[in-house]
Design goal:
Layout: H1 4-13, E1 15-18, H2 24-40, H3 61-65, E2 70-74, E3 93-98, H4 100-103, H5 105-111, H6 114-122, E4 128-136, E5 146-149, E6 163-168, E7 179-181, E8 192-197, E9 209-214, E10 231-233, E11 240-244, E12 249-251, E13 262-269, E14 289-290
Antiparallel strand pairs: 1-11, 2-3, 3-4, 4-13, 4-14, 5-12, 6-11, 6-13, 7-10, 7-12, 8-9
Length: 297
């Protein structure tokens, strides 16, 4: 699937863009299904909010259980001072996650299409398995910033193997919060781990909290205008972006009138160890499936 120059770009930079990877019809189907899920979803009183601010991160039950369910998470700025939504529900959701690729027919067809398996093979993934997915809305005016991070901090394996397959459902621009990445940053160390805590006898499925464990004090790249290491990945709808799990990347808040819908599938190697303290857990009766396989166990 990848040309020699694209593979070289990925190995050098830690990311590669593949234009016209998915069709307009595939994008329409995924977007329509995502909106249907939001329309049918009823939030709990706790109102799960997604944030990447380490000081404000809340790991509630819905978040910790979402490795094996499909759940909707609100934008931080979706609520007014009175605690009520300031716009309709469908314009207030940050993302849907994290198991729709195994629970929903439309997302399953997309996630297990041959394209992704072929690219995973091209970049040398060993027995790639679909672990986690997100439909990201990046809502107009309130689409939240995603702080600079490395995916391996949140989906850790030994050896590190997590790879992100990110699809632009809509155009991603500087105005509506496109991805930014640090070329070559995947050759640096993993800075931290995001782990489950607060449980006895290491029964991590029943953990009631999370914490960060620092591994390396080297700062992650600063977003602009403070830093100049990150470069924007502006891409048209239909583009696929492949991201190495150690690559530092970031996206800005969306203050524009245009949304920036995207779908991300994170995969790990079935040959690597996935520690039980990872925040994202799946029960034993929901094993990870190989890429390219539509046959459910």
């Amino acid at each position: 699937m990848l040309a020699a120059d694209q593979l070289a770009d990925f190995q050098r930079d830690g990311f590669v863009t593949i234009p016209d990877a998915i069709s307009a019809e595939q994008r329409r189907q995924l977007r329509t299904r995502a909106l249907d899920i939001v329309d049918a979803w009823e939030p709990t009183e706790e109102r799960s909010v997604f944030t990447t601010n380490e000081q404000d991160r809340v790991s509630n039950k819905e978040f910790l259980d979402s490795g094996s369910i499909t759940w909707c998470f609100f934008e931080e700025e979706a609520f007014g001072p009175d605690g009520e939504l300031t716009q309709p529900k469908e314009r207030s959701i940050n993302k849907i996650g994290h198991a729709q690729h195994d629970l929903d027919d439309e997302f399953e067809r997309f996630a297990y299409q041959p394209l992704i398996a072929e690219v995973a093979d091209d970049i040398g993934m060993d027995d790639p398995r679909a672990l986690q997915s997100m439909y990201i809305f990046k809502q107009p005016h309130i689409g939240g910033e995603v702080g600079c991070h490395q995916d391996a901090a949140f989906l850790y394996t030994d050896p590190i193997s997590v790879t992100g397959f990110w699809f632009a459902i809509e155009d991603a621009t500087l105005d509506n919060g496109c991805l930014w990445a640090a070329p070559g940053g995947h050759h640096t160390a993993l800075r931290q781990l995001f782990k489950r805590t607060g449980t006895a006898a290491n029964d991590y499925l029943d953990a009631d909290g999370t914490e960060f464990e620092e591994l390396d004090t080297t700062p992650l790249p600063e977003p602009p205008p403070r830093g100049d290491t990150l470069v924007p990945i502006e891409v048209p709808a239909g583009t696929m972006v492949v991201l190495d799990g150690l690559l530092p990347h970031w996206s800005d808040v969306n203050r524009s009138a245009a949304s920036r819908h995207a779908y991300t599938l994170h995969c790990i190697s079935g040959a690597a160890e996935y520690p039980a303290w990872n925040w994202l857990r799946r029960p034993n009766d929901m094993p990870l499936r190989p890429l390219g396989s539509l046959a459910r166990p």
